[in-house]
Specification:
Shape: extended
CATH architecture: Up-down Bundle
Number of helices: 4
Number of strands: 0
CATH superfamily: Fumarate reductase/succinate dehydrogenase, transmembrane subunit
Radius of gyration: 21 Å
CATH class: Mainly Alpha
Helix content: over 70%
């Protein structure tokens, strides 16, 4: 076998993923995160049905720093998945296939996800 002096494929540390690819990957990851959050919600509901002692324990878990961090991440995943899903609905209607529109809708979805998360937590903490 002779070796050829051909360039290698760019590795992930060299290649920069475009925003649209990052949005697609994040949409899938947040879908998995939402399922994990549903298991946490089920645990909370079962604790409420189990009695006040166990429910106060679960409330303390979710009220801790790590619990609030988990709930914040779950809320962000929920609103990101929602806003990106609305973006997909727009694509299904035939709008937004051009590259500038796709990038604009991606940025709008990101801003909407962050804004809705912050608004939900401000309202929830008030």
């Amino acid at each position: 076998m002779s070796t050829r002096n051909r360039p290698l494929s760019p590795h992930l540390d060299i290649y920069r993923l475009p925003l649209l690819a990052i949005m697609s990957i994040t949409h899938r990851i947040t879908g998995v995160g939402l399922v994990i959050g549903l298991f946490a919600l089920t645990w909370w509901l079962c604790a409420a049905a189990n009695g006040p002692e166990y429910f106060s324990f679960v409330q303390a878990v979710f009220g801790s720093f790590l619990g609030k961090l988990f709930l914040f991440g779950w809320t962000l995943a929920l609103f990101f998945h929602l806003s990106h899903g609305i973006r997909h609905l727009l694509w299904d209607s035939g709008w937004g296939f051009e590259i500038p529109q796709a990038y604009l809708s991606a940025k709008v979805a990101l801003v909407a996800a962050v804004a809705l998360t912050v608004i939900a937590w401000i309202i929830g903490l008030a």
